[in-house]
Write a structure and sequence with these properties.
Blueprint: H1 2-26, H2 33-40, H3 44-64, H4 69-90, H5 93-109
Helix pairs in contact: 3-4
Length: about 110
C-alpha cells in the first residue's frame, strides 16, 4: 500500500512538471539556416551574419526559460527586440519583411507570445 502511494505521488509530481517541460521546449528555436537563407535570398555575407545573430537570439531565448513567468516575458521581449534590431542592420527591406513574417509565425505557433 505504501509503495503504491509513493508511486502515485511520484507519477503525479512528474505529470505536474510535464507542462513546464513542454513550455521550455517551445523556446528552443533552432532553425535550418540554409532554408532561412533560401527563403530570404541571402548573400554569403548576410547568411553568416544572420546565423550569428540567430544563434545569439536562440541563446537568449534559452536563458529566458530559466526565469519565472513575468521575468521570462520581459527577457523574451528583449531578445526579440534585439534580434529584430540586429537583423535590420543586415537585411534589406524586402528580406526584413519576410523575416518578420517567419519570426512572428514561429513565435505564435510555439505559443511563446499569445
Amino acid at each position: 500500500m505504501i509503495a503504491l502511494l509513493c508511486m502515485t505521488t511520484a507519477f503525479a509530481k512528474n505529470e505536474a512538471a510535464a507542462p513546464e517541460a513542454t513550455n521550455v521546449a517551445a523556446y528552443d528555436l533552432n532553425i535550418n539556416i540554409n532554408r532561412l537563407s533560401d527563403a530570404l535570398n541571402l548573400t554569403n555575407d548576410q547568411k553568416e551574419a544572420v546565423e550569428n545573430i540567430y544563434n545569439m537570439f536562440n541563446t537568449e531565448m534559452s536563458y529566458a526559460t530559466q526565469y519565472s513567468s513575468s521575468e521570462r516575458e520581459i527577457m523574451v521581449k528583449r531578445a526579440i527586440d534585439t534580434d529584430v534590431k540586429h537583423m535590420s542592420y543586415v537585411l534589406n527591406d524586402e528580406q526584413m519583411s519576410k523575416y518578420m513574417a517567419i519570426l512572428n509565425a514561429t513565435i505564435k505557433n510555439r505559443g511563446i507570445i499569445k
